[in-house]
Amino acid sequence: MSEISSFCVGSCGIRASWSSAYPTASATSSASYVCTTPTPGVCDVNYPPYAINNVKGPLAVAAISPNVTHADGTLEYDMYNLWGHGILKATYNALSAISPGVRPFILGRLIFAGSGSYTAHWGGDNWSNWLSMIFSIPNHNIIGAISQEVYRWSSVIDASKTAMAIRYQLLPYMYTLFYHAYTKAETVMRALAWEFPYDLSLANADRQFMLANTTIPAPLGHIPVYARGGSVLPLQQAALTTRDVRNSPWDILVVLAKDGSATGKLYLDDGVSVTPDATLYAEFKVENRKLETIIEYGGWVEENSLRNVTIWGVEKTKSLIKFNGKVVPAKNVHFNGDKYTLVISLSSASAWTGNGWSLEW
To answer: How confident is the model at residue 23, as a pLDDT?
Structure first.
């Protein structure tokens, strides 16, 4: 919790109430905040001349009053977010000193420009409703509200298990997206209007989003996830922890475009090192009913096996399915012509090794 909070208004020593601690701001005041010394009726930082959406009311409620003066004379108004940034940076440096070379994982509520170098941002208090879910995940308890953990309601338990299982399966894909964000400044989550700027019907579509340009999670009660045609998604098995997911077999989901093509990427490293000793970057390419996995670079040795390749949009298959030129046993091939789905079970010793692998159907 990097945000300084106060559960009293004014001096906590005397438990002053709002009405006794501060006067009511004048709605017609034209006083400017641009001044160096707070002066009653001239410059009151507790009531700045612009609107701010503080759900608690005036700025001094549930937080340190903006007119509090620090030891060097600086007002809390000017230091509020900087303090949050500073404590997060200090936490990052402390964790780095305790575990050298290991990435610290920090969630910060109070941040400032540049805080993203040290922490992820938590949005703060929210409610268990669809409006809050648009912005965050509503499972946080606050004073005066009913408990909101997902295990409080059986229906929510089932829905949450399903949604979290999908999220864990998508972790390798999302990890690759964050790698692209770091190396190419690409976005991980995108509004539909960003991806389809000429479709005016999507200009105000703010109830769903895309993960890069491939998948669309849509919050419609059961949270379906749509995969875009022309995509190849690397997946692993759902588990209770990210470590268990990372140590599970691999699945590949191929979603063919109308012309039968598809592409995808995968980045891997040890997942914990600030500067990994070994990495791997692979490219997926589908043309003419053949999936090729090309290891573009990296010396990462993957110990987890390749379990299944699932292909959506298959209208027909060859009489023999081949993996790296060798025929796959018929018992390991499952084709559903009604749903245009082909599932191929494999037992590759390693999913990513050598120069890659190929699959023909």
So the answer is: 39
Cβ proximity of 250 and 282 under 8 Å = no
Closest CA to 312 of 343, 355, 279, 347: 343
- Residue 288 has a CB neighbour count (10 Å cut-off) of 7
Look at residue 46 and tell me whether its pLDDT is greater than 50. Answer: yes
- pLDDT at residue 119 above 80? yes
**Alpha carbons 262 and 256: distance in angstroms, whole number:** 6
* Residue type, position 257, single letter: A
DSSP output for 141-204:
--TTS----GGGSHHHHHHHHHHHHHHHHTHHHHHHHHHHHHHH---SEE-HHHH-TT-GGGTT
| Nearest CA among 318, 335, 336 for reference residue 327 | 318
Q: Between 10 and 35, where is the model more confident?
A: 10
Residue pointed to by tokens 């245009």: 340
Contact yes or no for 216/209 (Cβ under 8 A): yes
- Mean pLDDT for the chain? 84
Query: 200: Cβ–Cβ under 8 A, 6 or more apart, which residues?
Result: none
pTM comes to 0.82
Higher pLDDT, 243 or 1: 243
CA distance 160 to 155: 9
CA–CA separation, 120 and 111 (whole Å):
9
